[in-house]
Design goal:
The chain is built from 26 helices and 23 strands. It is α+β, with helices and mostly antiparallel strands. The chain has 6 domains: 127 residues, Ribosomal protein L1/L10, rRNA-binding domain (Ribulose 1,5 Bisphosphate Carboxylase/Oxygenase, 2-Layer Sandwich); 141 residues, ABC transporter ATPase domain-like (Helicase, Ruva Protein, domain 3), CATH 1.10.8.280; 51 residues, no CATH class; 104 residues, P-loop containing nucleotide triphosphate hydrolases (Rossmann fold); 69 residues, no CATH class; 115 residues, ABC transporter ATPase like fold, CATH 1.20.1580.10. About 1% of the residues have low confidence.
Length: 723
């Protein structure tokens, strides 16, 4: 370990050094000598408490002073800290012998640590084992949890191990910094009074800085010079007001965001006054802490964004943990390296005979696991890369590398379409990994459509012949060659080339409209410029991890969304985007599950459910009974089955086991009550219709244009088999 202040190696402290350090406190200071026998561990610690109660009377337990002769019950499921009060004394002449004995006692109790608590003051931990004599820095015994940002003992105290803290984001105060100054509306007018105040401050700063003459002193100025200066200032002010905010001189923008020592002249609502300016970021933070209304508070909370922690600089660990070095590098230095480079660094580490006994096996395990990540083609990513920034292919291969590293045998691995989203090059690496898992002595079962994966399989089970009610049969089994020669198998026909997806005979030509992203450099993008032609079917491709999702989903889409809908959403790092004005709508279609509740289904999500309910409400039988469209909703009382609240299933809570769902014994899964189900259209109740596949429902509802259009669209995209 090294000192995180002076970078000097941490050395042990003797009893004499500890005592001398304590005696350096001001005379008359009252101190407690504490022995931290338990630090942040779970348990009841009955034996430990009984043992220390024989020789001591008090202890500080979880920050509270307790008498050891009283009954102390600790929750064994929670972390506890027990610090024995060894002595209390006053710093004065003649106390050294008593202090030395107390320190020795505490060190003996804890195995080398003593905590000095100044009454109504600071506390300092001393160690016989690790301390920096020059800086007075003492660190506790290092444990594996000291290097985990998921542990309170390793995580940075400021950011709690997240690496980021929440702070006011200037890009949300003014999302579009290309706006002309005299047309700026700060905060997107979500807080109008706050926005007007910021605008007044900006004008005051521009007037203050514009036309400043730094050469002529006030003593040398005459009336003519002042007149010339005023005209120059007015001219420069007008010029600055008619240019984009982004083009303002740096001293003006810095003064606006961070404040200035110069007093400014504010003009607001007919009033004129002078005041200091602390900066827009600080002004909005203070306004958020004391908002004039709840509406303003909610609006200002939208300005907050995560920024790198100022203490750990995004490294997530405490300074003491970051200062520990192996092979000249700290843990954050290793994790910031690409896997390929880190692998080389780990290979370069040389251990002494003593260190080999302590850490030899650990280092060997690290080298092997890093090698596994390299073997699945992930040498370019860094070890500290946030998991949410990984592509689907990268995440898949990391999980596979973990399984290879475990060296398990006799395991059945089930993978559901692992090739989704993978480039052919990455797919080859994935297949090599799957074969390696098999060669370890495991069974690998894959659900897959990918031709290359099928061809590399040892055995294939082909189901079909079609989807939904037209499928569910075993069409063929055997090797890929046997499937290819099976005349009943559609899969085999594609494998043999008898069936294939034809290349279009012609392609649409560009219409001249385009969007250009300039200087994209987020994650691993290398300051690239990319042009997308509008009105075309454009594919962005590349190997896994090449930056496709970063470019499209994290730069282009957020920038378009912010421009079109005036949102505060922030794209990742880039210089500019040209052609935004050519787009007036943007929709992102991803692979997340549809609907926001368990009651969602294709009918509710596509908007079909409303016209279907209206259809049943228009039937003669419904009119006779006074049924409205709401009667045919399973979300509200009236028409739904109340035994299951319209779910069709009942939940049975199980002790110590997951809940079990069983079919409702009243409606038998229909979700509606008997009266509602008695209303029928073409012989079908609404439950019967919802249980019909799309391809079967289309002939039934083809005379209703609003419903037919949506059903036809679902059928066209290959979803005719779903209900």
């Amino acid at each position: 370990p090294h000192c995180h202040q002076c970078d000097a190696p941490i050395t042990r402290q003797s009893v004499e050094q500890i005592v001398t350090s304590i005696l350096d406190l001001p005379e008359g200071e009252r101190v407690m000598i504490l022995a931290p026998v338990v630090r942040g561990r779970k348990g009841e610690f009955k034996k430990e408490l009984e043992k220390i109660a024989k020789d001591f009377t008090r202890a500080r337990i979880d920050g509270e002073m307790r008498q050891l002769d009283e009954e102390i019950k600790l929750d064994k499921r929670k972390n506890h800290t027990i610090e024995v009060v060894v002595d209390r004394l006053l710093i004065k002449d003649g106390v050294k012998e008593r202090l030395t004995e107390s320190v020795r006692t505490a060190l003996k109790l804890t195995g080398g640590a003593v905590l000095i608590s100044v009454i109504d003051g600071e506390e300092k931990l001393y160690s016989e084992k690790m301390a920096c004599v020059d800086c007075g820095i003492n660190i506790a015994t290092l444990e594996p949890r000291s290097f985990s940002f998921n542990s309170a003992y390793g995580a940075c105290k400021k950011c709690q191990g997240l690496g980021t803290v929440l702070a006011i984001d200037q890009n949300k105060i003014l999302p579009d910094q290309t706006v002309i100054v005299n047309k700026i509306k700060f905060l997107n007018e979500t807080d109008k009074s706050g926005g007007k105040f910021l605008y007044a401050a900006l004008i005051a700063i521009i007037e203050k800085f514009a036309g400043e003459d730094k050469i002529v002193s006030p003593d040398e100025e005459n009336k003519k010079q002042k007149s010339i200066k005023n005209k120059k200032q007015k001219s420069e002010t007008e010029e600055l007001l008619n240019q984009p905010f982004a083009d303002l001189p740096k001293e003006i923008s810095d003064a606006f965001w961070n404040g200035t020592k110069k007093r400014l002249t504010f003009r607001q609502g007919g009033y004129k006054y002078e005041a200091e300016w602390k900066g827009a970021i600080r002004a909005m933070r203070e306004r958020m802490e004391n908002p004039p209304s709840e509406k303003v508070r909610l609006a200002l909370e939208e300005l907050v964004s995560p920024i790198p922690c100022p203490v750990c600089e995004g490294k997530r660990l405490q300074p003491e943990s970051l200062a520990v070095k192996v092979g000249g590098l700290g843990i954050a230095d290793y994790t910031a390296l690409p896997i390929e480079e880190a692998s080389g660094k780990f290979e370069e580490i040389r251990l002494s005979i003593r260190e080999e006994k302590i850490a030899g096996l650990v280092l060997k395990e690290i080298r092997e696991r890093v090698r596994f990540l390299q073997n699945v083609g992930l040498g370019y990513i860094t070890l500290d890369r946030a998991s949410q920034t990984l592509s689907g292919g990268e995440g898949q291969r990391i999980r596979l590398a973990t399984q290879i590293g475990s060296q398990l045998r006799g395991v059945l691995y089930v993978l559901d379409e692992p090739s989704i989203g993978l480039h052919p090059r990455d797919n080859q690496k994935l297949l090599e990994t799957l074969h390696h898992l098999r060669d370890l002595g495991n069974t690998v079962l894959v659900v897959e459509h990918d031709q290359e994966t099928i061809e590399k399989a040892d055995y294939v089970v082909d189901l079909g012949p079609l989807a939904g009610t037209h499928g569910g049969e075993v069409i063929a089994t055997g090797t890929p060659a046997e499937i290819e020669n099976n005349s009943k198998s559609i899969t085999g026909k594609y494998l043999s080339g008898e069936l294939k997806i034809e290349v279009p005979e012609w392609r649409r030509l560009p219409n001249g409209n385009r969007i250009t992203v300039k200087g994209a450099r987020a994650h691993n993008l290398k300051n690239i410029d990319v042009t997308f032609s509008l009105g075309l079917f454009t594919v962005v491709t590349g190997v896994s991890g090449s930056g496709k999702s970063t470019l499209v989903e994290e730069i282009l889409y957020p920038a378009l969304y912010r421009y079109v809908y005036k949102s505060a959403i922030e794209p990742l790092e880039h210089d500019s985007i040209e052609g935004l004005e050519l787009v007036d709508k943007i929709i992102e279609i991803d692979q997340s599950p549809i609907g926001r509740t368990p009651r969602s289904n294709p009918a509710t999500y596509t908007g079909l459910f409303t016209p279907i309910r209206e259809l049943y409400a228009m039937l003669p039988e419904s009119r006779e009974r006074g049924y409205k469209a709401g009667r045919f909703s399973f979300n509200v009382k009236g028409g739904r089955c109340e035994a299951c609240d319209g779910d069709g299933m009942k939940r049975i809570e199980m002790n110590f086991l997951p809940d079990v769902y069983v079919l409702c014994d009243v409606c038998r899964g229909a979700r509606y009550n008997r009266e509602t189900l008695s209303v029928k259209y073409k012989g079908l109740s609404i439950a019967d219709l919802l249980d019909t596949t799309i391809e079967d429902a289309l002939p039934i509802l083809e005379n209703i244009p609003q419903i037919k259009q949506k059903l036809s669209t679902l059928l066209d995209v290959g979803l005719g088999y779903i209900k």
